[in-house]
Amino acid sequence: MRWLLIIICLLVCNSNVNAQLSFAERFNSLQQLSVDSGVTLTFDEPSTIDVSKPTILILFALPNGNTSAQSFGKKLVGGDDWHFDIQHIGAQTAFIRNTDQKSNYIVAYIENNLKSWPAWRKKFGYQDERLTTIVEITRAKYLKYNPQLILSCHSGGGSFVFGYINAQTEIPKYIQRIGFLDATYGYETEKHAEKLKRWLKAKNKSLQVIAYNDSVVVYNGKPLVSPTGGTWYRSKLMANDLQNDFKLKKADLPHRLNWNDKKQLIEFTLIKNPAAKIYHTVLVEKNGFIQLVFNGTAFHQINYNFWEDRVYSNFILK
May I ask which residue range the UniProt record assigns to the signal sequence (predicted)? Predict the structure, then answer.
């Protein structure tokens, strides 16, 4: 199968870049790997990978309509596409590295040429073993560092993660953490609950879910999502499916609903929405990616809080 040949081209560039480089210089210095079926991986590595430190490899499945460069982010100037200012995964990664200097953090942006993981999976007949291959390619690149893997996603990127879970008999133990940023549209109890439960029962596994009440939003005169199709409904369904097995404590707070275990290794944070606004990208912007990585660790709320102003502004490149 052509897919199993995996590599069409590898563009290796010098990753030892100065933090003061412009966005164009920094992003263009990143390594890119083109994979069969229109998939491109873009690797954001630290300037040096210290073999004496733990390596954390974060796979970030892009949201619908975004390129890797837009997800990385930059300061907007006249004529720039607004997508460059809604996620800032590059700057949030820099904040993470600056805060935890005892680990190597590598982010692999996972993009496809349709700019939509639901559309990409549909095109290939939901052959989800292809997603397993993408994860294995990424892991193999850094295997000598024995990396801990985090699967993360925003929006339609959740389709990538759920498709990957579909393809597994068991979620591999080397997956340390799974994080959804308003990306649980594809959750189905019958397909995913038991696999997540078995995986979470292994030592130090973490599931982080962030969403908002999209069920009350009206856009162009129509509901933004169906009654059971949005991340508010699907995230609550997932939380309820896991609640008893992991003794998750539910809290109905003034501005959010929370389910979590004692160590916050499992946490659902669902923002209430009395004003019926669209917070789909704001969840990422307000330190959401940092929260997915740090919640339940020693670095939780070190110099940042989720759902407050950006703490990574100094790391955004021009």
Answer: 1-19
CA torsion sign for 64, 31, 284, 163 is positive
**CB of 181 within 8 A of CB of 202?**
no
Tens-place pLDDT, residues 226-238 = 999 999 999 999 9
Best CA proximity match to 65, nearest among 181, 155, 144? 155
- pLDDT computed for residue 15 by the predictor: 35
- Cβ neighbourhood burial of 31 (10 Å; 0-12, 13-18, 19+): middle
Tokens for 47?
């300037």
What is the count of structural domains for the chain?
1
Provide the pLDDT confidence category of residue 14 given band limits of 50, 70 and 90. very low
Pairing of strands 55-61, 148-154: parallel
Cα–Cα distance, 248 to 261 (Å, whole number): 5
**282: CB partners within 8 A, 6+ apart:** none
CATH of the domain at 39: 3.40.50.1820
pLDDT, average across residues 246-258: 98
Mean pLDDT of 188-217: 98
Residue among 19, 53, 14 at smallest CA distance from 30: 14
DSSP 313: G
Q: Residues with Cβ < 8 Å from 314, sequence gap 6 or more?
A: none
Residue 121 pLDDT more than 70?
A: yes
Task: Tell me if 170 sits within 8 A of 145, measured CB to CB.
Answer: no
Query: How high is the pLDDT of residue 36?
Result: 85
Helix (H, G, I), strand (E, B) or coil at 258: strand
- Give the side-chain half-sphere CA count within 13 A for 283: 29
Q: What are the distances in angstroms from CA 83 to CA 94, 211, 314?
A: 19, 20, 19
